[in-house]
Amino acid sequence: MVRDVSELINIMGIPFNNLSKQDLIDNITASDTGKNFIVTANPEIVMEARNNLAYKNSITKSDYIIADGIGIIIASKLLKQPLSERIPGYELMMTMIEYASKNQKSCYFLGASEEVNQAAVRKLKEKFPELIIAGHHHGFFKLDDESIVNDVRKTQPDFVFVALGMPRQEQWIANNIDSFSKGVFMGVGGSFDVVAGEVQRAPEIWIKLNLEWLYRLIKQPSRFKRILKVFEFIFRMIIRKY
Ligand code: UDP
């Protein structure tokens, strides 16, 4: 893949694109290949890549790696190469869906439970009546299941949102992107759960104060182990032991 020319900032071996959400959208929509793989990376993803070379190879196959998570912004400041803005994956997905609906572009929704997947598609259709749904499928399948790849290939979506959680979603995209002729592919984690109303996003004030991670931890204490990884990430950045 050809990495975009915008400034790259290396954080623990992961090359982040330093660009705003609008610049990213403009680049993608102007792309003449029509094919883009976007990783919205948070500290958990960077730590996973540090410990799992196959995963690192998957995410560095992407066209764009953007900062999703205040931990990444803090790290870039510690490196004295500040990234201009945090781009939450959920917001990027919603902006792309809005763009798709206004421009007769089709979307495929892959991931989450059958129930959440269907509810998310239904809610999006209500919010964006013009939205073209190329297809959708739940996310509980074997990574090498060819029938899913065939369905996406057959329906030729312009945008493919993959909500399988990290690391599966980026692995699925990296493994299969060469078999598609076009499309913007992006891992979106728990975003379908938010769209379906199963999980609430943090209130605006928590987001503004960069405390969305704390809100999620309070709501889902089972995420505690994952938060420890975030602290390890920040600690390593402070002591410069990558
Ligand atoms: N999921 C899936 N298939 C799997 C494992 C997870 O479709 O094999 C879905 C899960 O139902 C949820 C999403 O992937 O909708 C992962 O959400 P999580 O909150 O873990 O993602 P994050 O945003 O934290 O990366």
From TrEMBL:
GO terms assigned for molecular function: N-acetylglucosaminyldiphosphoundecaprenol N-acetyl-beta-D-mannosaminyltransferase activity
GO biological process: cell wall organization; teichoic acid biosynthetic process
EC number: 2.4.1.187
Recorded coiled-coil stretches: none
Enzyme class: transferase
Summary of the function given for this chain in its UniProt record: Catalyzes the conversion of GlcNAc-PP-undecaprenol into ManNAc-GlcNAc-PP-undecaprenol, the first committed lipid intermediate in the de novo synthesis of teichoic acid.
PANTHER family, per database record: PTHR34136, UDP-N-ACETYL-D-MANNOSAMINURONIC ACID TRANSFERASE
Family: Belongs to the glycosyltransferase 26 family. TagA/TarA subfamily.
Protein name: N-acetylglucosaminyldiphosphoundecaprenol N-acetyl-beta-D-mannosaminyltransferase
Organism from which the protein derives: Amphibacillus xylanus (strain ATCC 51415 / DSM 6626 / JCM 7361 / LMG 17667 / NBRC 15112 / Ep01)
Species classification: Bacteria, Bacillati, Bacillota, Bacilli, Bacillales
Gene: tagA
